[in-house]
Amino acid sequence: MKKLLLLTIILFILSNVNATTIHGGIYDFNLDLLENTIIEIDTTPKQSIVAKDAYYSFEVPEGSYILSASYSEEGYILYEIDEEIQVVGDGDYVFDLILLPAIDDDFYQWVDFDVDNPYSGESFNYWWAIIIIIVVILLIILFLKKEPKPILEGDISDKVLEIIKKQGGRTTQKEIRKQIPMSEAKISLVISELEHKGILKKIKKGRGNIIILEKR
């Protein structure tokens, strides 16, 4: 009996001598300390603590472990992480944990769909949403690429005459250019053609031209 007790004490001392200390801080994704986080490590038996001050510490023997941490509010897990850690030899290991935003099961249910039958249940709505978005994007692209209707030669002449009449039968070539989205050379060509037909008269004044509608 005494020998068994002595052997147990020796094994206990040896296990403590070979034990390694793992400790560190617990942070959220913004690198702020997270207090009251639950930390677990899958030793035998499993160890678990509540890190009230955002720091944890475990004594573990050599081996490979999963270090899990989760932070909850009102029964909902907001942040969590699972980290694999390899312990080789004894000593003191600093292993900080950075928790990530938790993704609940509803998210996975939403993105999960039947590959063999993509038109079933929620996946059907999911694919319809994608199709509608693609159609809208294509319509926007076609609308942006739509070219303005070209102005015909006769239309330009009528527009020039309309502008002159609105100005009381007299205006400047610069004013006509403002109201017709055509090049200066094109406007000059139309005015010269109307002048040749005797419909209007062009008078040079400074660096511009005054356009006068001929009376008939």
Number of spatially distinct domains: 3
List the total number of helices.
6
Structural class: alpha+beta
> What Rg, in angstroms, do the CA atoms define?
42 Å
- The CATH H-level superfamily of the largest domain is Carboxypeptidase-like, regulatory domain
What is the level 1 CATH name of the largest domain?
A: Mainly Beta
Percent helix, as a range, is 25-40%
CATH topology descriptor of the largest domain: Immunoglobulin-like
Shape: rod-shaped
Q: What is the arithmetic mean of pLDDT?
A: 78
Describe the structure in your own words:
With 216 residues, the chain is an alpha+beta fold. The protein has three domains: 2-102, Carboxypeptidase-like, regulatory domain (Immunoglobulin-like), CATH 2.60.40; 106-145, no CATH class; 153-213, Arc Repressor Mutant, subunit A (Orthogonal Bundle), CATH 1.10.10.10. Helices cover 38% and strands 32% of the residues. The protein is built from six helices and twelve strands. It has helices at 2-17, 105-111, 121-145, 153-166, 173-179, 184-196, and strands spanning 20-27, 37-41, 47-51, 55-60, 63-73, 76-87, 91-94, 97-98, 100-101, 170-172, 200-205, 208-213. The strands form three sheets. The chain has a five-stranded antiparallel sheet with strand order 3-2-5-6-9, with no helix packed on it. Helix 4 crosses helix 6 (184-196). The model is unreliable at 12-17 and 107-113 (pLDDT under 50).
